[in-house]
Amino acid sequence: MNNNEFKTTIYSHFRKMTYPVTIRPTQDGWELQLHGETVKSQPNGLQLMQHLSSVEGLRVDQNIEEVFESIWGDIQKYGLQETTTIKQLSDVISHLNEVYYGQYTSA
After folding, report:
1. Per the domain annotation, does 60 fall within a domain?
2. Domain residue limits at 18
3. How is 23-65 classified by DSSP, letter by letter?
4. How many domains does the chain have?
5. CA nearest 32: which of 43, 15, 20, 16?
6. Has residue 107 been placed in a domain?
7. Could you report the per-residue pLDDT of 45-97, keeping only the tens digit for each?
8. Strand order of the sheet with strand 58-60?
9. Which contiguous run of DSSP H or E holds residue 73?
10. Crossing angle for the helix pair 82-105 and 3-15, nearest 10 degrees?
11. Is 49 a member of any domain?
12. 10 Å Cβ neighbour count for 47?
């Protein structure tokens, strides 16, 4: 996978976030607040998400393109492995999709 394919893959995950989501660091990882509900990480939380959500938290909403470009810069800056990064981000998005769309997509 080349750099552009990698970027496109991650961006596609962010496009799936329909509702505003706030990501905040916690003492043992991170938590996502979406539409009034909270999803917390396991104790070994994602360092990337902790970094991105420091201070006031990261809101992903109408400015999805700007947010993505900022996150992409951090991904490159920290030199994370591509497969690991895709898995981390897709795990978060998959979890959110299960929480909010699972009852509609389950057979």
Report:
1. yes
2. 3-98
3. EEEETTEEEEEETTEEEE--TT--HHHHHHT-TT-EEESTTHH
4. 1
5. 20
6. no
7. 444 444 444 433 444 443 455 555 666 665 555 544 444 455 555 565 555 55
8. 37-40, 29-34, 21-26, 58-60
9. helix 64-78
10. 30
11. yes
12. 14
**Each residue's pLDDT tens digit, 15-59:** 555 455 566 666 765 666 655 666 665 444 444 444 444 433 444
pTM here is 0.29
CB 13 within 8 A of CB 96: no
What CA–CA distance (Å, rounded) separates 51 from 7? 19
d(CA 9, CA 5): 6
CB atoms inside a 10 Å sphere around CB 75: 20
- Record the tokens describing residue 89, joined without a space: 């981000």
Helix axes 3-15, 64-78, angle to 10 degrees: 140
